Amino acid sequence: MDRIGAANSPPNTHTPTSRDEKEIGRPKLDRILDVCGDHPDVDALVSLATSCDGLINDEVRRKAWPILLGYPPSEKTDSVGFTRWQHLPRHKDEDQVRLDVDRSFIYYPKNETEPQLDRRKEQLSAVITQVLRAHPMLSYFQGFHDIVQVFLLVLGLNHAAAAVSQLSLLRIRDFMLPSLEPSIAHLHLLPAILQAESPKLRQHLSQTQPFFALAATLTLYAHDIQEYSDIARLFDFFLAHGAAVSVYFFAIIVLSRRQELFEIPADEPEMLHSVLSKLPKPLDLEALIAQTVSLYQRFPPEELPFRAWAKISPYSVLKTTRGNFRQQTLNDGVAYFDMQVAQMRRQQMRKQWASTLWKHRRSAGRAGLTILVGFVAICLGRGGVDSYLAIAVRRVWEKVRGY
Questions:
Q1: How many CA atoms lie within 13 A of 381 on its CB side?
Q2: d(Cα 108, Cα 78) in Å, to the nearest integer?
Q3: Are the C-beta atoms of 154 and 58 separated by less than 8 Å?
């Protein structure tokens, strides 16, 4: 057996997770195992994963996480040719994967020898490479390894790649597109959430762009949270719910710091960004999770101000993980991926046309501009100019009329 497969059972024996079942009580453990049976009760499992202490330990998570991700583990143990991944073409991002993997397992597991950590890094590299080679359209992002190492520790080498594939294509797909714009779109929900709960705080932060939340939300907080038991518990919560919950969770963290933030002048966005980009320590996860659930229920995404939800792509995971999304397959994820890429290309083309119209506004006569607008409408709108282009054309036309 090669070194990658040498430490394969059990997945993680060195690192404790949440409080021991003796402290929490055996009834919850039994209830979780019961709803994870041959005919899983997903709604009950979601409730248990959200409730205090989540899924309690990794033995339970190995049964529950695949169900929360939308597949029975017995059917996905070695899917998509994972045993033959070495023979697939190299992925374009494998060099970056190697650099990031070398910086992994900094905080956990604890008390392992250097050879043990090296073996874990080889396993982590193997899992990430398997997923990327099996789905070469995915773009690796720095911090993806932080997420995958949690799945590797919880599920073990034989099961992690299948789970990460499911996660990548159906839960964090927006982060693995060829552009950062869909990831940024997640952040633009944050001001709307803050406005719904605390208009005063949102106004105070109005000069600070929400990029301070990027590292945390992009990595599902795995880059920032240093305790293994905490990040495993938080993953229980995130896997139980749709993708938007991660942004609501960050909003709760911001709201919990409002007194500190109000002490920083609003006209010092650099200072506010610096403070907000670092998560407070320690995090009271159970309180934050409970508050996130309450905030999400009181202000669901469809009811957020500033038409924030309407601006989200229909192919974004923010929207495709609303409702009964656990019936989706990897093929559905690939289809959503392709549709979102096509939409991004159309949007880029519209921006280029709008820029061209504006650049030639002085020389464009009314007749020439009318012809150009009609041409753009046929090319892009297929019978009509959409709202984005219509606004751009209207502005150009108004300027041209002034000359």
A1: 16
A2: 26
A3: yes
Are the C-beta atoms of residues 93 and 193 closer than 8 Å to each other?
A: no
Burial (CB < 10 A; 0-12, 13-18, 19+), residue 38, is exposed
Q: Could you say which DSSP state residue 159 is in?
A: H
- HSE (CB half, 13 Å, CA atoms) of 140? 27
Question: Which residue stretches of 11-156 are H helix?
Answer: 21-24, 26-35, 42-50, 58-69, 73-76, 94-101, 114-134, 144-155
Please state the pTM of the whole predicted model. 0.85
Helix residue spans in 299-329 (DSSP H): 317-320
**Which pLDDT tens digit goes with each residue over 217-244?**
999 999 999 999 999 999 999 999 999 9
200/194 Cα distance (integer angstroms): 9
The per-residue pLDDT for range 18-74, each reduced to its tens digit, is 455 556 668 999 999 999 999 999 999 999 999 999 999 999 999 999 999 998 766
Task: Return the DSSP state at 327.
Answer: G
Give the integer Cα–Cα distance in Å for 236 and 132.
Answer: 24
Which of 188-192's residues contact partners 24+ apart within 8 Å by CB, and which partners? 188/308, 188/311, 189/244, 189/247, 189/301, 189/304, 189/308, 189/309, 189/312, 189/318, 190/247, 190/250, 190/251, 190/254, 191/306, 191/308, 192/304, 192/305, 192/306, 192/308, 192/309
Yes or no: say if 133 and 91 are a contact pair by the CB < 8 Å rule.
yes
CA distance readout (Å), 393 to 269, 347, 390: 34, 15, 5
How far is 188 from 186, CA to CA, in rounded Å?
5
159 in Cβ contact with 77 (< 8 Å)? yes
- The tokens for 389 are 């282009």
Residues with Cβ within 8 Å of 17's Cβ and at least 6 positions away in sequence, in order, are 56, 57, 58, 61, 228, 229, 232, 233
d(CA 128, CA 243): 21
Say which residues have a Cβ less than 8 Å from residue 402's Cβ, sequence separation at least 6. none
Query: In terms of Cα–Cα distance, which of 327, 129, 151, 145 is closest to 223?
Result: 145
Q: How far apart are CA 196 and CA 299, in angstroms?
A: 7
CA dihedral 341, 342, 347, 349 (to 10 degrees): 120
Spatial separation of the C-alpha atoms in residues 304 and 63, rounded to whole Å? 35
